[in-house]
Design a protein that fits this description.
Helices cover 40% and strands 5% of the residues. The chain is mainly α. The chain has 2 domains: 253 residues, Serine Threonine Protein Phosphatase 5, Tetratricopeptide repeat, CATH 1.25.40; 182 residues, Serine Threonine Protein Phosphatase 5, Tetratricopeptide repeat (Alpha Horseshoe).
Amino acid sequence: MKLNILKLRNLAIASAFLLSITSCLNDLDVKVNDDELYTSEQFYANPESYKQFLAKIYAGLAVTGQTSPNGNSDLGAEADGGPNEGFSQYIRGYWQLQELTTDEAIIAWGESDNPGIRDLNFNTWNADNKFNEAFFARIFFQVGLVNEFLRETTDEKLSSRGVSADLKTQIKIFRAEARFLRALSYYHAIDIYGKMPFATEDYVIGSGVKPPMQSREYVFNYIIGELNDIDADLVAPKTNEYGRADKAAAWMLKAKLYQNAKVYTGVDKSTEALTEITKVIGSPYKIATIPYANLFKADNNINGAQDEAIFPITFDGIKTKTYGGTTFLILASCVKSVGATLGVNDGWAGFRARQEFIQSVGSDARVMKVSGNTDPASISDYSKFEEGTKLIKYSNIKSTGGNGSDGIFADADFALFRMGDAYLMYAELAIVNGKGSTATALNYINALRTRAGVTNISMSDINALTSTDAKEMFILNERAKELYWEGTRRQDLIRLNHYVSGYTWQWKGGIQNGNSIASTRTLFPIPNKYLNLNSNLSQNPGY
């Protein structure tokens, strides 16, 4: 077998089972120079190669290819049928599907450069939506990388290469981390798509057998089993390198799965969620005792925010340039004049909040508004950035006041899992699901409020929540205040029964005053592009 050390693209796409190995994607025919090619044995002869491969899997959450910030895409050139590279960045893709489809954000960009973006605003996407297609491809590229890494690190292969006992011990940890990363991507897939094409490292590339479609429940149970299996091999909480997974990250992922299990499988698993989130909260991670805004600044890997970041996706304005990630989240939220106050030299005038979100969070200090901005909260024309409330979340300014390392590409890391979320997950389990202690939930809610200088609530405030709807809306609002623009809103609204109906925001359903949407909109479609490549796949209802 020939390998390109930097270009694992071809193998990963085939391994990602979006198509049979005999299917034709233009990218699979990419040609590289002979001096870029190595046999697999040459590659793995270097003891560092195993960690390098693992680093590539982690990097897939942050960058889009081998030439930063744009070029030599993991998913193939756009001219050859691949997605727009900026669209395909993992966090950008995930964030857009989770946020633009809710009250927390609406984007002003036009269809000429961003075809299909309006349909995310309006909840009217179809199976040809380019943003949905790009994220689907990115998820399964990640899965494919992990599958290949696991194939190449079996005990048999390591022994045949004469790998030392010490390195084998390290690789055992690497394999557990890789399986966590695959579980993470499968979690995102069941949340967004429900059923999906499914394969593990046991799938035989080149067999001519197309991978099967598996149900949401099947993949849910598989992920839980994987996370249980790897627990012993992951390192203890907060003992790994920053940005790498540990036991607490796996516990947090299990807690997320269990808390959403009623949506995913029809079975309530809130008791199991409480067990896992209690383990997370009892770990060495903690609520960072720093100003709330510093959690999202350019030096949030060292300014104290790292104490709270259970699983951060790391970015660096020099080393990991990308048009996604926190670069996108900063630049797309502002105009150039505001960008200058956020440590960047531009502004893309993209997304802002809808008026219903602003009404729900009130004057809570955690929801940081652009100082001096007087734009109307109501949005009569989604394409006019000057309509809608302008917010700040991520910044390329350090907590000490200096700018990040680059004037465009951000240094701020994106905490996919953080302790503030864990506190509110516990609070939800206690208040909505009746699990755990409401007194403890109150303490957790107030700990977050106190950090931000927000007035505490009392037990009488919680006791006043007598209806299920009131409890759900209370938790939704607390989560909105603490976690806005962190990529949780769509999932929260679905889990707490306010996504389809019962709560309306401007332009929901494609009309200015908003409307209820079909229940089928709780899932995105399997992209037509990939349905056509594997006859085992079937479409989600409503598409």
